[in-house]
Amino acid sequence: MIHAKRALPFFLLLVLLSGCASRQYATSPAVGVETASCSEVFSDWQQRVDAGNHFDAQAWSPPGFPYLRVNRLLASFPVDKLSRPQQQAWLERAHEMAVTAWHHEAASMGNDASAQLPELQRCGQRAMARLLEDDHQWRELAEASQVPDSYNNVARVLGGYPAVAPVVRWRAGVVMNELMDQFEAYHPAHAWRAYEPATPSPVIDPSDLVGRASARSPLGIPVFSDKEREDLLSLYAPTWVVETGGPYDVPGRPGRDTGGELRFQSEPVVFTKVAYTRFDGEVLPQLVYTVWFSRRPSEAAFDIVAGELDGLVWRVTLGRDGRPLIYDAIHPCGCYHTWVLAPDGLKPVGPVDYWEEPLWIAGTAPQTDRGLVVFLSSLTHQLKDAATVLPEDVSKARSYAIEPYDNLRGPSFAGERLFGEDGMVAGTERPERFLLWPTGVPSAGAMRQWGNHATAFVGTRHFDDPWLLQEYFWLPE
Questions:
Q1: Are 287 and 405 in contact (CB under 8 A)?
Q2: Which of the four, 70, 295, 381, 434, has the lowest number of CB atoms within 10 Å?
Q3: Is 62 in contact with 68 (CB distance < 8 Å)?
Q4: What's this model's pTM, rounded to 2 decimal places?
């Protein structure tokens, strides 16, 4: 009996840690793979990846379909009701994401890992061709392709979530309402420093560009050429104005050395990607800009949100006319999700349910057909304003480079991968995780890879949820 009592905490801990679905490769037999040689190719790859911290967790690996990766956008399609051209387009996108992940995994493994990539792709193409001809296997795919959420429901059960949630909701209101009050009314204690895109805004018609891109896919997902993607990202790239009180307020490049330690290289660089959302029956592009800082310093003797690495993720959602519908931002931990309305853009539908975290709307941005000027505070790197002009005491802005977000997925400048196989950045854990674990958010406050951002401590909400705008906003006539 004594031994059982001693073992109970360890058992509960095991249950707690296993409560959140893993994005790593599953051990399920590969569906659609006919030959033993291809089965061996996928099995060998998975074993090599699982043997080290090599798995790329940006997208879900559907159990039984190791040649596909699925994000929340692809999972939002009714896979079992697609037409044949749509099925083909869906598979091609899912396989393309798998190939991209394989490349990053191969770079992480090094040695001769990249030599396996052609065989992986060949076996994947053969399995996809079989999938299209087998209705039973396609139904299996429809079920397996549902991306699990980023919450640990076992933690919510063991942590007494129903009793904790109202307290967390109240505390979130205190913190976020204070931030909303400071928007457009912040008085910096240190000098502003501005960073503008090194590439000047291109002369393009965003409406024409988005319209042409949307017509290229049977799924209605805008497909941009490399040049079109670069032009859109340059057109709406923000100018960052950062209150600079120390080296922790200087943008840069995060990395990890061969000893597993975090490293940071101060340089003016912003990491970008194009994501997608759904609204009024259409798939719309979202431009994502991530700026990193070396750390969030402590503001007190004991600061539960201080730690290594910090940053801001700024997102611009475009309408069918290629112009901003709404802006929003999070920190790379998924925290402090803040909305900034666009003139003539989306409006909130109204109050949310009590068992959900409210929408935190800072204000309305000024009208512009270019990138906004985004203001961040010192130390906390909180969003403080969104304008169209630099502050009067800043005469000149430094230039920053734009790089693909995918540059963060392979080995970093310091030698090893930044993100772990769980989609998090080890070494960026915050003390707040010991208080907020009953909310089901794993390691609250730790930095995360794209696709892994839970954004609410009350309820369930993800930054990359394609239905987010449809659920909480509407577009006036």
A1: no
A2: 434
A3: yes
A4: 0.95
